[in-house]
Specification:
Blueprint: H1 10-16, H2 24-29, E1 36-45, E2 49-50, E3 53-54, E4 61-70, E5 74-82, E6 91-102, E7 107-117, E8 128-138, E9 146-154, E10 164-176, E11 179-190, H3 193-199, E12 208-220, E13 223-232, E14 244-252
Antiparallel strand pairs: 1-4, 1-14, 2-3, 4-5, 5-6, 6-7, 7-8, 8-9, 9-10, 10-11, 11-12, 12-13, 13-14
Length: about 250
Amino acid sequence: MKALLKKTVLPLMMVLGGVQGVHAEVESEKSLADQFAVHGVLTLSNDYRSRGFSKSDHNPSVQGGLVLTHSSGAYLMLWGASANTPNGGSVEADAILGYVWQLNDNASLDFFYADVNYPGGTGPSPDFGEYGVMYKHNNALLDSDNVSLAAYYSPDYTFSSGNEYYYWGEYSAPIFKNIRGFASVGYTKQDSVEDFNLGVAPDAGQKDYFDYKAGVRIDYKGVTTELAWVDNNIDSNMDMFDGRFYVGVTKQF
């Protein structure tokens, strides 16, 4: 039940994508204060969707974060969301530590560790840690398009359900002026049906699943509106796994 990616990744990586490495000789010429910057992101949505399913019981959600970046490419992000958490709480709070390696003008690699927490609630702790790497490439196939590929690994996923692997990819391209079309697909796998039932869907009786998202993003005066369909192939009777039309509005600052 990952909070990033997007999401995902999505609002998080939109902020982090602006971090770029610089040469050491340029670094040394900057004052300590000039080497750091703070960025933020705020999203209002009709649902908090993560890896293809709802984490807010199909209710509206507020998500936001602050990112401290260093000109070397290192960053620290604090991020939170209103959610219906696995332990009966109402907040997800994450800390993400990472480094962006700028390969060239069009491509970068983002290495990070996410500490995912669900404060409050009762019963066993669903908190977990996750390692990840994301490759981003602009102007890959068409002018101004974007390709993103990512892999995530948790050695002890939520409710101590063991190894969890998540692979994700997205392609986006301009359609008309400030409107972009996009499509993404993800794949989640755990070691066994028992682990999957404990960590993802109690009644699914499977150990892996696919999720997908497709829609448009509209940028207007610094605000991004996302309209998309989100779904998965989890075989569950729980409403949180039903597909849904998603609307999200994001502002970076």
